[in-house]
Every structure is written in structure tokens, then in C-alpha cells.
Amino acid sequence: xxxxxxxxxxxxxxxxxxxxxxxxxxxxxxxxxxxxxxxxxxxxxxxxxxxxxxxxxxxxxxxxxxxxxxxxxxxxxxxxxxxxxxxxxxxxxxxxxxxxxxxxxxxxxxxxxxxxxxxxxxxxxxxxxxxxxxxxxxxxxxxxxxxxxxxxxxxxxxxxxxxxxxxxxxxxxxxxxxxxxxxxxxxxxxxxxxxxxxxxxxxxxxxxxxxxxxxxxxxxxxxxxxxxxxxxxxxxxxxxxxxxxxxxxxxxxxxxxxxxxxxxxxxxxxxxxxxxxxxxxxxxxxxxxxxxxxxxxxxxxxxxxxxxxxxxxxxxxxxxxxxxxxxxxxxxxxxxxxxxxxxxxxxxxxxxxxxxxxxxxxxxxxxxxxxxxxxxxxxxxxxxxxxxxxxxxxxxxxxxxxxxxxxxxxxxxxxxxxxxxxxxxxxxxxxxxxxxxxxxxxxxxxxxxxxxxxxxxxxxxxxxxxxxxxxxxxxxxxxxxxxxxxxxxxxxxxxxxxxxxxxxxxxxxxxxxxxxxxxxxxxxxxxxxxxxxxxxxxxxxxxxxxxxxxxxxxxxxxxxxxxxx
Length: 565
Description:
Structural class: alpha+beta
Number of strands: 7
Number of domains: 4
CATH topology of the largest domain: Heat Shock Protein 90
Distance between the termini: 58 Å
CATH superfamily of the largest domain: Histidine kinase-like ATPase, C-terminal domain
CATH architecture of the largest domain: 2-Layer Sandwich
Strand content: 5-15%
Order of helices and strands: HHHHHHHHHEHEEHEEHHEE
Shape: flat
Helix content: over 70%
Number of helices: 13
Strand order of the largest sheet: 2-4-5-7-6
Largest sheet: 5 strands, mixed
């Protein structure tokens, strides 16, 4: 409805009447809520009584352990479960769906534990009878004199007394006494074959009693949980009732206060509503002129200022769309330009690296082969300085061969050949390849046990190269003292591998450049190791990041998809 200014004046007069009506409606609504919540409180109290009845039958059953009290216990639990199941979905939603879900789950667990404990008590009874039967056989054996010399009538009688004490008290002291006596019989087992059944029966009794204690403890925990949930629901509903009563009083007082003060304010507010649209439009115009194009003139009044504000906002919408389109185009242009520059840079580096590597490879192989042959043919009469020089030439040629190999690997960058790979085997194999490293034996290595259950779809040779490079960097960073740990975890369709060392760490500036080609902080090396690692992970549709603090070690985190389609 489009209101003119004089329409607002008429509406302003009706405000006090609307305040009174609104206050009455709110009070009526809250009183209905109070009535409904009282029903929820009664429901919670009824459930509380049933839980207490179930817990009482639980104590009787644990005391007597027979079928009669199990029947009483089961009937009380069934009655309680029926009451819980009879609660409607609407009531469950109102009181607390999550609490009732936990409540039903706890009730089902409780019923299951009741049956499990009863079955276990029957099994325990059979084992107790077996222990008594074997004990009587031992007594008969001693009485007839056909027994080991170390056994005596007094020892067997004392053993049976300890047995009865344990069955009666089942405390730590009686358990230790009986266990010590049984241990003495075990020591006689080679010469007392008749003792073995008794020892076995007592062992079974220890096991079944331990299981019974575990079931009792679990049953009591679940029962306590039931009490806690139902008490929480009951207390919360009482608090809601009190809250609704307080809110009803509060809204009634507010309606009365607003009615008392609305009269003097009607004239002031009416005049303010007439002038307010014009003032707001002027303020919005001023802010937009300062460059904030997201602001809009609020269209609150459908009076003479409506058409002006509507046209003004339409103009601003078109202006903002044009501005946003230009911003997006500019951002996209910048992004594409950066990608183009980076692609050209990497292509140039790859071409240069490939050319240099191929040019160096043939003469380098000649130097390496010649040095190797001279070392083998040099005899004892060969001067030491010549042997030293040849060894140096051979070692340096090996170093250059590795550099050339890194250059070729970086330049070629072949596509991965994906197949199923056991992650634990791959990581372990990569670590074994560093066994001849200077510091490999003095650096501790750990791999979490769950890695053996993870199968990833990857190129095993490329992924092995990733771990060899990371392990080698970590070992060099620790200089022979520290530990290297690998943790592999699988979550949903992603596999996360963390490689952590306790080395000297890296600065923030180094972390920002660590994956750039030819960047290195070491006196030797090409700076291509981590660049190759980065490229391999990207070709596996994964991600690699690094976290490090100077003096506290470094962690490389690799995230890979488990399956690649």
C-alpha cells in the first residue's frame, strides 16, 4: 500500500491501540506455552520415576543374580523403553531431539547390557561349579595319598578356603591370595597332572569375573547417564516454564509502559516520519558521492519520496554492476598475465636446463669413467697426492652427474603413470635408499602404524623421489642429531602425509621461495629438489605446504587424492 504523508498521521494515532492488542496477544501466547511446557515437565518427571525404578531393580539383580530378579529387572526396563518409544516426534522435537536421541541410544544399550550380564552370570555359575568340582577332586586326591609330595592336606584345605573367600568377597586381597596359591600349584604341574584342571578352572573364573565386573561397570555408567539425561531435560523444562512466566510479566509491563509514553511521542514521531525519508536520501547521496557504491536509499515509506528513492536505487544498481564487471575483468586479466609470465619463465628454464644437461652429459661421463678406471689401475707405487686427486675428481664428477640428473628431471617432467601403491612400503623403501647417507644411521626414523592400511593411486617412482628428496633435506638439516617422523592419515577421499624433522628450521622469507627452481640455502646443490617435488605433487592433483620455525624444525604436509579418475 502506498501511503501519503497524511496517511501516516492517521496510522500514528492507532499506535497506542495496537500496543495494547499486541501485549494481550503476546501474553496469551506465552501462557499457552507455559501450559504446554508443564506437560513436558510432567513427562520428564514420569520418566525420572521410571528410571529410578529401573535402577532399583538393577541393584536387586546385581545383588541376587538369579532369574527371578532378572525378570523383574527386564520388565522394569521394558516398561521404561515402551514409555520412551511412545513419546511423539513432535514432543521429541520440542523438548530436544538430540537429548532424546542420546536417551533412546542409552536405553537400548542398557537393555542389551542387562541381557549380556544375565547370560554372563549363567556362564559364571557354571564355571564356579566347575571350580568347586575340581577342588573336591583335589581334596579326594590328597586324601587317598596319590599326589605329589609337595602337596599336603593342610595346603589343599587352605586353598579351598581362599577359593571360597574369593567367591564370597571378590576383592583385590582375596584375588591376590588365591592367585598366589594357584601359582604354587602351577609350579607343581610337571609332577601333578591332576592339578592342571583345577588351575585352568580357577583361571577361567578369574577371566569371567573380570568380564562380569566390566559389564556391571558399563551397565552402571549407562544407567547413570540415563538419570543424568532425564534430570537435565526435567530441569531445562522447569527453567523454560519459569522463563515463560517471567517473559509474560515482562511483556505486559512493557505494553503498559509503552502505552503510557506513546501519547506524547506520537506527534514527534509522526513529524519525524514525514521528514526522515528526505534526510536519509540526502545522507545516502552524500556518502555515495564519496565513493561507496554499495549503499542504497532505504525504501521504507510509500509516499511522495518512494518514486524518487526507487529511481535513485535503480541508477545505483546499474552503476555498481558496471563497476563490479570492470573489477572482475581487471582481476582476471592480472591473473592470466601472472600465469603467462610464470609459464614462459618455467618454459625458458626447462629449455635452458635441458640444453645444458645434454651438453654436459657426454664429457661428464668421459671424466667419470676415466677417473674410475685410473683409480682401479693405480697401484701402491702411485703417489698419494695422485690418488687423492683422482678420488676428488671422481667425487666431484659424481656430484656434477647428480646436478645434471636433476636438470634433466626438471626439464623432462614426464607425466605420472598411476597405479595402486601401498604407502607404507613406498615410504619405507625411500628411507632405505638413504641408508648409506652420512647421517642416516644417527637420525631416528618413525612411521605411524596406520600408514600400512593406506593405498593411493600414484606413480610409485615419482612419489618415491618426492620422499627421497624430503628425507635427504631433513637429514642434512639435522646434521646427524635429531629425529625424522612421517605420519600418514586418511580422511574421506584424501590422504595427508606429514614429514617432520627436528632440524634448524627455516625463516619466513625462505618458506616463501622454497619451491622456486634453483633456489637453495645450501652451499651445494642445484635448488631443484623441492621444485621437482612441487611439480610431481601438482601432477598428482595434490598440494604441498611447509610449516617451519627457526630452531624448531620443519614439517612438510602433502595432501593427495586417494583415487584419481
